Amino acid sequence: SSELTQDPAVSVALGQTVRITCQADRPRSYHASWYQQKPGQAPVLVFYGRDNRPSGIPDRFSGSSSGNTASLIITGAQAEDEADYYCNSRDNSGDHWVFGGGTRLTVL
Amino acid sequence: QGRLVESGGGVVQPGGSLRLSCSASRFIFSNYGMHWVRQTPGKGLEWVAAISYDGTDEDYADSVKGRFTISRDNSKNTLYLQMNSLRLEDTAVYYCVKDLRRDYFDFWGQGTLVTVSS
Description:
heterodimer; A: mainly beta; 4-stranded antiparallel beta sheet; B: mainly beta; 7-stranded mixed beta sheet
């Protein structure tokens, strides 16, 4: 089955830039999306596709992709960005969606 | 943005059945595909099932295929998940999620907890 691999934990100093990565086990036909989940809350879409940020998401959240790896970039991380982040993509069959294992972001 | 409210979770014995419902409001439900995604307590997210806007196309994760059925009633703005032959590993919070462009998960309900236990 298709897999997306994320680092389990990443930390960043307040105000600095952090990159959270999502590595696919094979080249993908579909773009990735990213979800932020804070304790006790449902996930929230924060970035998707080639270059899309939902309404209400701060512009410090951006994304990029290179080869088999998608990245979520937070430029100038804030204390409220501390959360779990999950990537997702449809697999190449187009009829399954796959999540990465999640990355816990700590803002120091 | 719309609203999604799940219901129907609870405690069930292994081998039992449960039906989850998701009531949608504040958006045109019949225009969008929908998903169920689950999260084991303290663990990550797992996509479970998807259904097209008109209910004609369904997809399932391998872990639930043949046991779970996703359906919808557009006249009632409601999404369903019929879960049969439940296993211990099906214990999770189940989220109802609105589809965005068929590729992404737009927004999520607050979830309903399903506990499979003897």
